[in-house]
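Thread: Modeling a multi-component assembly for a lab meeting

Hi all, long-time lurker, first post. My supervisor asked me to bring a structural picture of a complex we are working on to next week's group meeting, and I have zero experience with this. I have the sequence lines for every component (555 residues in total). Could someone generate the structure of the whole assembly? Inputs are pasted exactly as I received them:
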Amino acid sequence: MTFPGLSLGRSVPPSRRTLLKWGLLSLGTAMLTGVPKALMAQTMGRMKTLTFNANDIGILNFALLLEELEAAFYPAVLKSGKITNAKELDYLRALGSHEAAHVKFLRGVLGRNALFQTSDLSLNQPGLNALLTDRTKILNTAVTLEDLGVHAYNGAGPSLTNPTYILAAGSIVSVEARHAAGVRSLLGRPTTETDSERLVKTVDLVAKLNPFKGRAYDELYTPKQVISAVSSLKILNNPINGSLVA
Amino acid sequence: MKLCFNWIVQPMVNALLPYRHLYNILCDRLSQAWSNILAPAKSAVLILPLLLVCLVFAPTAPAYAQSASQSARLSPRQVVEYALTLEKLEADFYRRAIAAVQSGALTGVPDIAKAALVSYGEDEAQHVTDLSAVLRSLGGNPAAIVIPANPNYSAILNRDPFANPTDLLLAGQYVEDLGVAAYKGQVQNLLAAGEAGKTVLAGALEIHTVEARHAAGIRFLRQTLLNADVRPWIRNASSVIYNENRGTVAVSMESQGKQMIQSPSPIPFASEAFDGYATREEVLALVGPILTAAKPSMMAPSRSVTLSN
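Re: Modeling a multi-component assembly
Sure thing. I ran the full set together rather than chain by chain. Output:
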């Protein structure tokens, strides 16, 4: 990529002023890095750390985070104006309303045990915008999110202890799978996921969690693997920790 | 086949024993009501459908706790045996569908649908292979899980589902959506088995959502190729053959003054964002006519059983 007026190929010794400028900048960065965590949090406004514990409440909150991200994605898609096909708009609207319903349900179940409010989430706007550049990027991102949701719910399921919670998770996860298959179909992609499409590669799947592997199965991801995949999407700023994702 | 029939019916009978009293009352009442309307000769033909209605509506425990408290809790091995039956049937269904496509009986099927049928058929065959191995590891015998040599697939739509692409995809949708609900109906049983059920639970979850992908894929094909008013997700409970909106049933049953009232589940099954489930008894009541190759006159119109809600 070249810009008019900028000649990157020519190497010019940096002027003293430039050196001074960069030096000051580094000093500033070093100072910022050294700032105590509490002060840092204050400086950055309400950047809440999300702490997920390894219990039913932690798992439901973890599911809530994924649903919140999906529920934020689809309205942003509609707002981008990049989707113009009527059928695709119909699908993406429906998906957005389903994810909002999942958020509402999980918040209802969690009540005061919800670890965060929707407003506590700090979305990385440039990161999100980068996923909304065109129709193909948008639909493929939707597939990534929905496939990830399926693997996440599957992975968390056996760790739940409350029978109503696991039935609820089952009731939601098959709808996420229908979403994944629906958007894949819009793209002309097969509805099932091949090994090479998976964000977590076969060698990294936890053997104990996955009796079966391959296209005929939606493998179980650990919450840690899911959070790592979410991070790679660069859409959320909030720090995440806790025994569930350790 | 007789063995198979017993295997299917016996658990249903066992499960219903505690409800025999209510069941008799309801069946009597329904039979009387029908006798008043219809000629006695005709009412005999209605017995099987009525039995199925009784089976579907028999549960009295709260819907959300049904697997745990209602019928006998299935062991992981029983769940695998039940799942293997369904998978063998699904794999066989796709084998016949693909044979019909290749032999020219279904020449109107577009390539995109052919590719899906082949792919889904391979997945179901893989499920049969892997569940068979799991059953063996649990001390069971997968070869003893048999389906008829010629299952009566006409029971699904009350006509041959392999005669034209429209019926083939509709039957496929019914079968796949039922499969999703069937797996979902077992997660509580497997969770209740504790550590002993963990592997089967993980395997069931891995299959459950792939069945949902299949169902969604077929729904997409119906919408796209046939202009059917359907989406990959379940907007309308009448697009499936099991009882999708369980909360709705509780209300309608109450309004009819029936004694069997289900507590509404905290899960909003009536919302299209939440898929419903089906118990083994419910699934087998629907699948029974396919497995038992009943005579056409005795065939339960499987859709009308649940369409009443």
